[in-house]
Write a structure and sequence with these properties.
Blueprint: E1 14-15, H1 29-42, E2 47-50, H2 56-59, E3 63-69, E4 75-80, H3 84-95, E5 102-109, E6 112-119, H4 123-136
Antiparallel strand pairs: 1-3, 2-3, 3-4, 4-6, 5-6
Helix pairs in contact: 1-4
Region (Disordered): 1-38
């Protein structure tokens, strides 16, 4: 880790495609906005930092971070793209490639994409996913 790089807030797990999977990258204003939207959509739920899934480089994103809910199977990944068009293309691809046994949904907010997955049998996850997607879509 570069000692001259800007410090990250406690609990942040940001990655870049050119970095190791857990190496932090400098905090970007768009990623800070994404973090705020995740916190807003999560309400008071306890979140753990996780590596984004799928990986940042697999989607062609510039950077990203992940969060997992401690209360269930919900996992959110936020990706930073060059623009809305790239983020929308990645969202469309993800919606057609949801792993078996999971439910997945996402939305784009400017250059950010949030992708949320949960166990398909986790009924409590449905409301969490809707709240998080609503937060990113501006339905606060």
């Amino acid at each position: 880790m570069n000692p001259n790089a800007p410090s990250l807030r406690q609990g942040e797990a940001l990655t870049r495609p050119d970095a190791g999977s857990n190496e932090p990258s400098p905090v970007d204003p768009s990623l800070r906005r994404g973090e705020a939207l995740v916190r807003h959509g999560a309400g008071g739920a306890e979140l753990l930092p996780v590596v984004p899934s799928p990986a940042v480089q697999d989607l062609g994103a510039q950077a990203g971070f992940g969060r997992a809910w401690t209360s269930g199977s919900v996992r959110a990944s936020v990706y930073l793209f060059n623009n809305y068009k790239e983020a929308s293309a990645a969202e469309a691809w993800l919606k057609t490639h949801v792993p078996e046994g999971l439910r997945g949904d996402g939305t784009v907010n400017g250059d950010l994409l949030v992708w949320v997955t949960a166990d398909a049998k986790d009924e409590a996850a449905r409301a969490i996913i809707e709240n998080l997607i609503g937060s990113f879509a501006g339905e606060e």
